[in-house]
Specification:
The protein is an alpha/beta fold and 702 residues long. It contains 22 helices and 36 strands. The protein has four domains: 276 residues, L-arginine/glycine Amidinotransferase, Chain A, CATH 3.75.10; 78 residues, 2-Layer Sandwich (Alpha-Beta Plaits); 80 residues, conserved putative lor/sdh protein from methanococcus maripaludis s2 domain (conserved putative lor/sdh protein from methanococcus maripaludis s2 fold); 229 residues, Rossmann fold (3-Layer(aba) Sandwich). Helix 9 runs antiparallel to helix 10. About 2% of the residues have low confidence. Bound molecules: arginine (ARG). It holds the Pfam family ArgZ-like_C_1st.
């Protein structure tokens, strides 16, 4: 039976390390010894010949890697899928291997140009012939897999390689007879590892350690119960022997310098066909359409990068480049991924970027009923800040109450279906929830070609904004505030206690008094320290005029809380004349509604503080409705909370001394956001001055 097994090898007559196309070759150019290589190859040849028949293909001058016949192609029965090498350095091997296969009567299939696939180096049959494991990520393209499945009529399981040292599947993965698998799990992404674990039971998985992996232990030739490899640790040897294998070590160090070992040096050309099995792949594809300044605004790069980073592959079907500076471009891109699950992940990110289903791919959204009050189906779509539409009964329905990190709930009324963003805890039985990523699109304004969202924020990551930069920002914000006030618009301020500690209280109070603020959102602390300052002249015990800590001042805020509690509320404290100035005073006097959301560290709290967090979130969301601008002043928690509730299109200005906070807010990536890294007290004082300047000039003109 063994004499039926055949391998193809190629004499190392022209073998050398002539170039670098993988990390093993680095530093090894012309460093391998031809004589040692010949000796090592002969030994391997000899060992294999004891167990199988070896055919030889003639080595060709100028193609030093031709010794690695695993990369000639992939053979099943009498059919071959010829390799399409990724690197030009090896592409010249293709015709030589093709000639050999044809001379032996194989049917040769060739992939389209630009769809690389490196043969049995990247595709390994389960030794029972049940399916084909196919690698991608470095040398072979995922898009090659469906064609391979079809030509060879097998099931293809796609595995994504993540570590460039293990650039071919056969460097880190070796199916063995009896359903065993020798492999190095860290070379694969999480999805691939799960797939492997689903197909190969735990007792059959021989996961190797890094020291074995880097001596190419997985690059083994398996013939029935023997395993031929360069080197194995004692532990690995024991484990293979316990599983019933006989390990034969044969040194191949000269070939390791080119990134290959025993398996790479051989190609099994007798793979039995199992006629009862047929072609399948889990690969899923979808076509998307993109419009906008795809090149100038970097949208195309971002889209293609996230497809590849997400484990997928793409084919640009059309690209219409806008001709003028302001003309948008359009593109259709076919996206594929190793499974529907991975595709959904990629698609949800593409949808966030504004990609829409291509018209021939326009499909009904998938919906599932709420399984239990306050929970969504597992696969629910998570909303973003962008205006969203979902396809229901063949038409696009606009989603109401847009916010991020919610689900999309659908109900059916006489006027048609209604879709709205809903927090999962608010879902009720009877509602449907959008699941998956089909039939969903987000609408992005075709941005001005000069606006680049990431750049807008990049100056902040460099640290504190320069003085002039802050002034410019202040001028812009002042202009907007005036404009919104004159239009009768709505400005929401979120503020932390730092506003008071840095001396900004008086300025914020003035903004409220002058009608620039319509809502104040914060926590217990901003109110406590504002009132402390109003009643006792200190903020957290620090004298706000002298800037020094007052004896026993750390108790002040507790006295203040107690006083307000006695009054019953902040409003009552104002009414009874206890509270006569400050931020909270101005809110009460000017009927500016406020919400103070409590937290675990609150002292007191003040009677106005909402300690029921769900109620606090609802009150925040309520007051945020219809906002034109949100001014976020040094409060990470409240600002991020607000950011999540606010749809795109609302201007956000985030001021914080910590660049991390500002960057965090900028992750929304919305163009309307401005970040200023500076002291908030200073910012407010500049802002108030600037508004004063604008207003007085205005008055003299009129
Ligand atoms: N130098 C060759 C390359 O980088 C080594 C090929 C090893 N072959 C393999 N099946 N892993 O392409």
């Amino acid at each position: 039976m063994t004499d039926q097994i055949r391998f193809l090898m190629c004499d190392p007559e022209h073998y050398d390390v002539d170039y670098v196309i993988n990390p093993w070759m680095e530093g090894n150019i012309h460093k391998s010894s031809r004589s040692i290589a010949v000796e090592q190859w002969n030994k391997l040849h000899h060992i294999i010949k004891e167990h199988a028949i070896v055919e030889l293909v003639k080595p060709e001058q100028g193609w030093p890697d031709m010794v690695f016949t695993a990369n000639a192609g992939l053979v099943l029965g009498k059919t071959v899928v010829l390799s399409r090498f990724y690197h030009p350095e090896r592409q010249g091997e293709e015709p030589h291997f093709k000639t050999w296969f044809e001379s032996q009567g194989f049917t040769v299939h060739e992939l389209p140009k630009d769809v690389p696939f490196e043969g049995a180096g990247d595709a390994l049959f389960d030794r029972e012939g049940r399916w084909l494991w196919a690698g991608y990520g470095f040398r072979s393209e995922l898009d090659a897999h469906p064609a391979i499945a079809e030509w060879l009529d097998v099931e293809v399981l796609s595995l994504r390689l993540m570590d460039e040292r293990f650039y071919h599947l056969d460097t880190c993965f070796c199916p063995l007879s009896g359903g065993y698998l020798l492999y190095y799990p860290p070379a694969f992404d999480g999805y691939s590892n799960r797939l492997i674990e689903m197909r190969v039971p735990a007792e059959k998985r021989i996961a190797i350690s890094e020291p074995d992996a880097v001596t190419f232990a997985c690059n083994a030739v398996n013939i029935n119960d023997i395993v031929i490899l360069n080197k194995a640790s004692q532990d690995l040897r024991n484990r293979l022997e316990t599983a019933g294998f006989r390990v034969i070590e044969t040194p191949l160090t000269e070939f390791l310098k080119a990134g290959g070992a025993s398996k790479c040096l051989t190609l099994r050309i007798t793979e039995p066909v199992r006629t009862e099995l047929h072609a399948t792949t889990q690969i899923d594809t979808r076509t998307i359409h993109m419009v906008g300044h795809l090149l100038d605004a970097g949208l195309m790069n971002r889209a293609l990068d996230l497809i590849v980073d997400g484990g997928g592959s793409f084919k640009v079907l059309n690209f219409n480049l806008g001709e003028q500076r302001q003309s948008p471009s359009e593109a259709d891109v076919k996206v594929s991924a190793p499974s529907a699950e991975v595709l959904d992940d990629i698609m949800s990110q593409l949808i966030d970027l504004g990609a829409i289903p291509a018209s021939e791919d326009e499909q009904e959204s998938r919906r599932e009923p709420v399984p239990q009050p306050g929970t969504a189906p597992d696969d629910f779509y998570v909303s973003t800040i962008y205006p969203t539409e979902v396809r229901i009964n063949g038409t696009w329905v606009k989603v109401q109450k847009q916010r991020m990190d919610a689900s999309i709930a659908v109900t059916y009324t006489d006027e048609g279906p209604v879709a709205q963003c809903k927090l999962i805890r608010d879902l009720v039985i009877g509602e449907d929830v959008i699941v998956g990523t089909r039939g969903i699109r987000t609408l992005h304004k075709v941005e001005n070609r000069d606006q680049k969202a990431p750049q807008e924020f990049s100056f902040m990551s460099g640290g504190v904004s320069s003085e002039r930069r802050v002034e410019l920002m202040v001028e812009q914000v002042a202009w907007e505030l005036r404009h919104i006030r004159d239009q009768g618009g709505k400005v929401v301020v979120t503020a932390g206690p730092v506003v008071i500690h840095t001396g900004g209280g008086q300025h914020l109070a003035r903004l409220i008094r002058e009608g620039y603020v319509q809502v104040l959102l914060g926590g217990n602390a901003i109110a406590v320290h504002d009132i402390e300052q109003a009643l006792m002249g200190t903020s957290l015990g620090v004298d706000m005029n002298q800037g020094v800590a007052v004896q026993g001042g750390h108790r002040h805020h507790l006295k203040v809380i107690n006083k307000i509690r006695r009054c019953g509320s902040i409003a009552q404290a104002v009414e009874s004349g206890v509270l006569t100035k400050g931020v909270m005073y101005e809110c009460v006097q000017n009927q500016v509604p406020f919400v103070l959301a409590g937290s675990i560290r609150d002292d007191g709290p003040l009677p106005d503080t909402q300690m029921n967090m769900i109620a606090a979130q609802q009150e925040y969301a309520q007051l945020l409705q219809g906002a034109d601008m949100v001014l976020m002043l040094s409060s990470m928690l409240h600002s991020i909370g607000v950011g999540n509730m606010t749809p795109a299109g609302v201007k956000m200005v985030c001021v914080d001394i910590s660049p991390a906070v500002v960057t965090k807010l900028s992750d929304r990536g919305s163009l309307e956001s401005i970040g200023v890294v500076t002291d908030v007290g200073l910012f407010l004082s500049l802002l108030v001055n600037q508004l004063h300047k604008l207003t007085t000039v205005y008055q003299t003109v009129s």
